[in-house]
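Assemble and predict.
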Amino acid sequence: MSFLKLAAAPMSIATRRAFLGKSGLVLSGTAVALLAGREALAAAKGSKSTAEDIRILNTALGAEFEAIAAYQVGAESGLLQKPVLDLAVTFQGHHREHADILGKTVVKLGGKAATAKEKYTFPTDTLKTQADVLRFAATLEKGAVSAYLGAVPLFSDGDLAKAAASILGDEAMHWAVLRNALGEPPVPVAFMS
Amino acid sequence: MKPRALAAALAAAVLVASAHAAVSERAANNGDPVRGEAIYSRCAACHALAYDRTGPRHCSLFGRRAGSVPGFAYSAAMKRSTIIWNARSLDRFIASPISAVPGTAMGYAGVADPQERADLIAYLRQANDSPPCTK
């Protein structure tokens, strides 16, 4: 059975309940303090550098929405067994938190937050086993680390850079844990690029 | 500055720019696609070869006008740009996207190492003839 067909199969009630229970938005106090709670962000509205910050945040937001959708496909596939399924659901919850805080920050800066696409394309025809799904997720997470690494130095606001670095750290942990679940060295390099 | 000195300075500047462009072109054509594939993993949060994601697809990139993949929501800056993607334009863009196209949605500092850029470009060129792009 192809991954696509598996993805289209209904999720079991227990799985869905567990999924919904863990994927609700619970923003950490730290995240809120890092981004949406800073009044200085609101005061920076309208400047050229703020417009650039908004563009960077919205691109990150778009990627977070895609990551949420990717984990949704994985969680509903039937290919992930516990405790890997729980990991995927937990990581998806993190991406939801990232997306929520990024969107709120864009609005705080006076911008219009990007929205999730109606449909995402994933290479579902190449995903046949749990390992395939894990490897695909690890690829996305490593890319996310690189993307945030490339975004951090561009922010005009130091606190935005700090917050993006905080998300980067989370993505890096996802990548390491996924690699570990695959039986690969979890942290293969000393530096990320 | 006297007119003759100004002309000499301009000529020198043109020569330097031409030499730099030639070096850039040569470097961009001397990449290693195997190393480039590993570097491409940095792009995986936003790009894929065969389909659009947060960023546009990379199949059929060479010779394509920037901002022209049908149905992809580009930034206004990218749509306005007159870039045709080739080794030289990619080298410049990948070095610093927001400098090359101010206002681009690609909020990424860039790949600073010229050899890494050349490797990445070599991979993108080779990938264009590989199954994800040809099937």
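Chain A touches chain B at residues 52, 55-60, 62-63, 66-67, 120-121, 123, 139-140, 142-144, 146-147, 150-154, 193 (CB under 8 Å).
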